[in-house]
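Let's practice the habit of predicting before peeking. Look at the sequence and jot down your guess about where helices and strands might fall. Then scroll down.
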Amino acid sequence: MPLEIQMKLNENPLYKQYLRSNSLWYKKLIRNPNSFKEFVNEMKITYQIRPIDKISKTIDTLNVISNLFNNML
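Done guessing? Here is the structure:
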């Protein structure tokens, strides 16, 4: 694995955690270092840290709060 990718993996704890839990990515990144972007995208989907996931969580929270207020009335 290229040194540049190793440094990126060590800088971000989420990358390390995801790589340890999905060890198939070791092989993929060693064979094709260009797949790092795919690795990051898959990690974001798994940990739900994409912007769309954050918006969805916010909307869900607002719906719960709205339902609580409606039930109180």
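How did you do? Helices lie at 3-11, 13-21, 24-31, 36-47, 51-72.
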